[in-house]
Amino acid sequence: MEGDDMEPDDSPGYLLWRATLSWQRRITATLAPFSLTHVQFVLLASLWWLDREGVRPNQLTLAQHADTDVKMTSQVVRRLEDKGLLVRETDAADTRAKRLRITDTGRVLAQEAIAAVEAADTAFFSAVPDRDALLTTLRPLAGRRD
């Protein structure tokens, strides 16, 4: 197809951008009642999951797990701590390091927000006729294995 003949809907990048914006708006609206931004949710949900697995991460481990910028993660962790959703505790093995622990309030909020986001995802992606094919397509784009 020649560049002059292309329509926006012929561009995978354009369509991905539009789909991403639509999905982000839905997630932002879903998280509003929980007073969480999307990145706060991602980090809190990641901490909740790591906690369930018995892992007490430091900020770097949390950032790596969530695939977020380390400096931004530090700022968001402070905000989540201010909200009483997690605490930073001195690591007994290295007193310079801080381990993150989700609070009971954070655990409850994470579970409720995860359920709401999963419901929003289910509704949003219901427009796709073949969920498995979508996942197979998205995994390599996201740098994930099948």
Describe this structure in words.
This protein is mostly helical. Helices cover 61% and strands 10% of the residues. It contains six helices and two strands. It has a two-stranded antiparallel ribbon with strand order 1-2. Strand 1 and strand 2 form a beta hairpin. Helix 3 packs across helix 4. The two termini are 30 Å apart. The relative contact order is 0.12. The model has no long low-confidence stretch (mean pLDDT 92).
- Proportion in β-strands: 5-15%
Average of per-residue pLDDT values: 92
* Secondary-structure-derived class: mainly alpha
Tell me how many strands there are. Answer: 2
Radius of gyration: 18 Å
Query: How do the SSEs run, as a string of H and E?
Result: HHHHEEHH
Unreliable stretches (pLDDT < 50, length at least 5) are none
Q: What percent of the residues sit in helical stretches (DSSP H or I)?
A: 55-70%
Q: Which strand order do you get reading across the main beta sheet?
A: 1-2
Overall 3D shape: elongated
Q: End-to-end span in angstroms?
A: 30 Å
